[in-house]
Amino acid sequence: MTITGPEKNSPLAALFLRDIRTGRRVGGGTSLGIVFFLILVTLSAFAIGPDLLLLGKIAPAILWISGLLASLLGLDRLFQADHDDGSLDLLLLSTTPLELIVLVKCLAHWVLTGLPLAVIAPVFGLALNLPVSELWSVTLSLLAGTPALTLTGAVGAALTVSLRRGGLLFAVLILPLCVPSLIFGVAAAGASETSLVPFVTPFLILCALTLIAAVIAPVAAAAALRHASM
Amino acid sequence: MRLSASNLTIERGGRTVIANLSFELNAGTCLEVTGPNGAGKSTLLRALAGFLPLCSGAVSLSPAPQETLSQLAHYVGHADALKTLLTVTENLEFLASLLDAGLGGLPVAEALAKLGLAHAANLPVAYLSAGQKRRAALARLIAINRPIWLLDEPLTALDAGSRGLVRQIMAGHLAQGGLIIAATHAALGLKGQELRLGAAS
């Protein structure tokens, strides 16, 4: 697939296109994320053993933890490449607010990593003996929940942007903040017609978490980036 | 347009790099910032671009425009700000959209041709030499019109022919009433003044 655009896009559309292009050319970023997701799911299944009943019961949790780790893959580099090659300076010279730039960069990253995970998750769910009735709830919960993970991760990526080996610090900073999304994500993914809590309750909280992250994270990340460029 | 800086003091990492620096620059002139390594040339340029906070002093433009200085300025630093995976044209088209200040500019293909890069327009930047990357970075100066150019060692890695080209482009910008502030070790030979920064204390 080639992406072509008019010669002068709006700054944000141009940024989105550029990030999608670089992400795709960096060596199959999307397919690599899906393979990583598959490996995590498979490893969990091997670790738990051939108890199909147990596997089906904890499948939402396995899918969510694997999805969480896979969607944070490469996120620590979200701003680092721009910092290293000097593009970050130019993002600051634009008339477009840095907060919006951060939001668009997160969106591009999510389209390349989070979205494919959510789409492929039901297939892996089948492999984990997830009841068919719960397949769609896994996808929906990942669709609604992974943007919050990307946005939260962007704050960590901005804070560690000038560190050479910031990967571990990034994980230590960000993973605890993913707990709320994880709790309500697994609750929504595991909800079925017979369960005590209906799907909608945790799902709405999950959506709220994503919306809150969309408001707070760009401001926090932009502040960190401005400081990093000093 | 006239740029005046008064009593600038800039710190970096808790150390005062520039103290009480004042200068004025008229439209159509170039300020060549010279001095030994570590004198604070890059620091001054980054502060003018708005990346570093000023500890004291102020930079003002007259007549006062609606935009901030950083929205009217081009900054070309040591890093070329090009994505190695994208072609030269893709890089410049992105920058043209990002930095567009509503003042027009040359079409990307024409800007590249002016810097002698027409043949490399569709090559990924990763395949370019250091001098070609430098020229691709400088091409944004004419692809997007902005009145103030902040250039950090603009002639690094360029061969004699390309240096002449870039000097010509800079002279053209001055002739149109633009301002250039350039940190440099090699004299640019442009109309303007020299600002010599002393060794860091």
Pick out the low-confidence regions of chain A.
1-7
What is the string of helix and strand elements of chain B?
EEEHEHEHHHEHEE
Strand order of the largest sheet of chain B: 5-6-7-3-8
The N- to C-terminal Cα distance of chain A equals: 39 Å
Number of discrete helical segments of chain B: 6
Structural class by SSE content of chain B? alpha/beta
Characterization of the model:
The complex is a heterodimer of chains A (230) and B (201). Mean pLDDT of chain A is 89; it is low at 1-7. Chain A has one domain (11-228). In chain A, α3 packs antiparallel against α7 (114-127), α8 runs antiparallel to α10 (179-189) and α8 (135-159) packs parallel to α11 (200-228). Chain A contains eleven helices and no strands. Chain A starts with 10 loop residues before the first helix and ends with a helix. With 230 residues, chain A is mostly helical. Chain B has one domain (2-196): Rossmann fold. Chain B is built from six helices and eight strands; from the N terminus they run βββαβαβαααβαββ. Chain B is globular and about 45 Å long. The A-B interface holds A 5, 7-11, 13-15, 17-18, 21-22, 25-26, 81, 84-87, 89-96, 229-230 and B 12, 49-53, 67, 70-71, 73-75, 77-86, 90, 93-101, 107-108.
